[in-house]
Amino acid sequence: MTASRSHRLRLEAITHRFGASTAVRDINLDIAGGELVALLGPSGCGKSTLLRIISGFIRQTEGRVLFDDSVVDALSPAERGVGIVFQNYALFPHMSVGENVAYGLQAHKWPRERIGKRVAEMLDLVHMGEFASRKPRELSGGQQQRVALARCLAIDPKVLLLDEPFGALDKNLRLDMQIEVKRLQRQSGITTILVTHDQEEALSMADRIAVMSRGHIEQVSTPTGIYDTPQTLFVNEFVGTTNVLRGEFIEGPAVRLEHGPILPVGPDKAFQQGRAVVVSIRPEQLRFRPAPSDGAFAAVITTVLPLGAQVVYDVALTGGPSLKIAEPRDAEGGLRPVGATVYLAPASPAACNVFPAS
Amino acid sequence: MEADSRLVLPLAAIFTAFFVAPLVVLLLLSLHGDIAMQGWTLHNYVKFFTDPFSYSILIDTLLLGVKATLVCLLFGYPIAWLCARAGARWQSVLVFLVILPILTSVVVRTFSWIVILGRQGLLNQVVMGLGLSNEPLRLLYTEVGVVMVLAQVQMPLMVLPILTVLSKLDPNLADASRVLGAGEWRTFFRVTLPLSLPGIIAGCILTYAASITAFVTQTLIGGARLIYMPLNIYQQAVGANNWPFAAALSIIFMITVMIVVGVLGAIGRRSEIHGRA
């Protein structure tokens, strides 16, 4: 059932300009049937424009949109067969929950008996069966979102578009709804695009993430791929937190940091000798060392942030910049004191990502 | 709290002196046989409801308001819809054009309509020039003419409330409707129109109340043979010098208008509850 209902989506060389400014530039993306892909980026990166292009509200300046190998560019939003869950859910406030879900079916000229059955079935699917006669304003945020999902899944769209759908929910509810939406998505096998600026949301929900910046895609990869092997400094800095150190590339391979020390990096890093680069090390990839051994930097702890399961220390390198370092919190051991001198080094040379300095 | 509420007293005093007191005088006057106010009587009210000539004027006036309001709505809604969809610059131009009638003196405005509607007027010259009619149309001193002019003059009262509601509508709602498979028309009739009902009701109340009481427009365009309540009251008071009867007419007119506005307002409040997000 999953395979027959899943549709592929393909974006080919999509460029869109508003007057003189380019909102999205040369976007190529292949999404397999049943896949959940997140478009992740800061506001103004073009992800919403791309969503409107896929749904047919905007006709792109260049390029093609294909559903299952057929070009849909000439089709209106009504004909395209996409479902959108809007950030504010956009439920029709003058209609009951049941009427909201029935709306799309009526527009598709379903016979009345089948509409009633389908509405009940969809509301049961999202556990809202007993709320059919309520008005949207009588529902909580999470309930409104369930209705919005039921409304757009009722017409069996080819592609489901989620536009920042969890932004308006508080944190605990957000996690519940993310699990719920992922369950529904798996169950129905519907190809889904999640537009978000929230990296945690993208990392936890998506099969693959396309990180966008200034109108183009920086990298498409799995959540772990994006986090562990970012291909650009932008991706590295946007997803997760990281420490950025400036230096020049030298033989080894290694990087001579601006404040003196030499940092060995993985053998896969290849740059011209003397090339100005930036090294990025995530806080959890730094380790405390007991003594000033080879390649360990001396530093002084300036701030201690006990964040539950983890402790994050802000340390000032001797003669250099500040770094963040995270270690699992040991309930027995207590925290390292502010002002203490410590020695730290990357967990391994491979943990250092190197990018050309801009 | 005590000191705060006392600040309202001057306003309350003015309100009582210049609004409530005259109304009380009007009511007392209507319950007397003559201006000397000797003896109480319901004669004026009995006379109104038993004289077909009198109450048919009231009905004509109420119907005139309905006609002017409907014409206003018919043209006003699309104008408001266009304004709401237009870009910021076009919107301010359109809104300025819509409120222009309010900015013109009522006398100037009405006389320009006389020039347009007359036998040799602009409209008839165009109609006859195009060969649409051999005879000049009779517009001036007819109800059609009065309705046309009232609709134009009251247009801002219809357009502005509808425009306000339409511009506050969440654009995602129309998008959601489209993406669920509805065309432009279904989206309009199932989503946009029902949600703009509060604006429509507010516009109708304002245009209705303004149309039936528009003494100058009704009288100058309608002429002496088309009599509506405001002219009737004026003639009774100033022409026939029958102040008590004029007072009774005023009271009856006022209560009828309040009933109509109250009913419309109740419908409006219901639709507002439905429409609130």
UniProtKB/TrEMBL annotation, chain B:
Topology term for the membrane: Multi-pass membrane protein
Residues of the ABC transmembrane type-1 domain: 58-264
SUPFAM superfamilies, alphabetized: MetI-like
Main localization category: membrane
One Pfam match: BPD_transp_1
Signal peptide: none
UniProt-annotated location(s): Cell membrane
InterPro entries in UniProt: MetI-like, MetI-like_sf
PROSITE patterns: ABC_TM1
Lineage top rank: taxon: Bacteria
Alphabetical UniProt keywords: Cell membrane, Membrane, Transmembrane, Transmembrane helix, Transport
Protein family per UniProt: Belongs to the binding-protein-dependent transport system permease family. CysTW subfamily.
Name used for this protein in its record: ABC transporter permease
Source organism per UniProt: Bradyrhizobium iriomotense
